[in-house]
Design brief:
single chain, mainly alpha, 5 helices
Length: about 240
């Protein structure tokens, strides 16, 4: 399985596992599994962003309705007797204050929960590009190996200096191509670890920040609404 365990994210464990892991990355089945993992991650990120956007839109509509109620109460207060006018004006201000807290809630969730997840199309594209580079390096290595073998078969028994130079050139090109395979595979290895680590941390932080934002909002909202309740509750009953 290409997805590393949490314990494998330390630098020392990465280095110790690199040779065995790199051998898997040359396996077509493993690469296909990795691509499916990337596709699944991008799809899940898009679903989460859509859900968060829907939630924030709902909060925005609720905020608008709450402010409207406060405005209506002010209109009613202007047309009411002194016995309730001041209470309605105060409650109106508290309701508007509560909706400003809701605006802060939306801003926190947008910035700390939604925005990091919006980056996943770009993150997934970068990892797919590393897969593409490794594949190209492997294809080039295969091509250079075949060329070197052909030169060796055709000219291996001849001591001609020109032929010898061609053999040396083909071997050097093969060595360069092999070096590029090692480099691209190491890069892909590190990219996979970074991808899995970031995915793990981003989903954790997304949910944590969303819950914490709600906790902050509801705690402050309770204080404001308690004041509003006390104001209207203390208003004297009407006596003709």
């Amino acid at each position: 399985m290409l997805s590393p365990n949490r314990s494998s994210f330390s630098p020392s464990s990465k280095r110790s596992s690199i040779s065995g892991f790199n051998s898997k990355l040359s396996n077509e089945e493993s690469i296909m599994f990795l691509k499916k993992n990337i596709s699944s991650t991008e799809r899940n990120a898009a679903m989460l962003v859509k859900a968060l956007d829907g939630y924030l839109d709902c909060q925005k509509r609720t905020q608008s309705k709450g402010i409207k109620i406060g405005t209506v109460l002010q209109i009613i207060a202007d047309q009411s007797s002194e016995s309730i006018k001041e209470s309605l004006n105060q409650v109106s201000k508290y309701l508007v204050e509560n909706e400003l807290l809701r605006a802060d809630l939306q801003e926190r969730i947008q910035g700390f929960s939604a925005e990091p997840i919006r980056a996943y199309p770009m993150i997934c594209d970068r990892l797919l590009n590393d897969i593409k580079n490794q594949k190209q390096a492997l294809l080039n290595q295969r091509k250079k190996r075949e060329m070197a073998e052909n030169v060796l078969l055709k000219e291996g028994g001849d001591n001609n200096k020109s032929m010898s130079r061609r053999m040396s050139k083909s071997q050097l090109e093969l060595a360069d191509a092999t070096g590029m395979v090692t480099l691209s595979t190491d890069t892909l290895q590190e990219s996979i670890y970074a991808f899995e680590e970031r995915k793990h941390n981003d989903i954790k932080n997304c949910v944590k920040e969303m819950i914490y934002s709600e906790m902050i909002y509801h705690a402050k909202s309770l204080e404001v609404l308690t004041k509003a309740f006390e104001v209207i509750d203390s208003t004297e009953e009407f006596h003709p």
